[in-house]
């Protein structure tokens, strides 16, 4: 079962959306994880 990044296997677009939302969640919630040094 070989699925490349350019070939949608199960739900490629949905998986990409999940990744984007996860990155946004990390950026927005960075203060909660002490990524920004108490400057929020």
From TrEMBL:
Protein name from the UniProt record: YjcZ family sporulation protein
Organism: Priestia aryabhattai (Bacillus aryabhattai)
Superkingdom classification of source: Bacteria
InterPro entries assigned to the protein according to its UniProt record, in alphabetical order: YjcZ-like
Family: Belongs to the SscA family.
Signal peptide positions (record): none
Localization: Membrane
One annotated Gene Ontology cellular component of this protein: membrane
Entry-linked NCBIfam families: tiny_TM_bacill (TIGR01732)
Keyword list, A-Z: Membrane, Transmembrane, Transmembrane helix
Keyword set includes Secreted: no
Membrane-spanning segments: 15-36
Membrane topology annotation: Single-pass membrane protein
């Amino acid at each position: 079962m070989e699925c490349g990044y350019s070939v949608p296997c199960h739900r490629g677009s949905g998986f990409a959306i999940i990744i984007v939302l996860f990155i946004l969640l990390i950026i927005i919630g960075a203060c909660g994880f002490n990524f920004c040094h108490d400057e929020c």
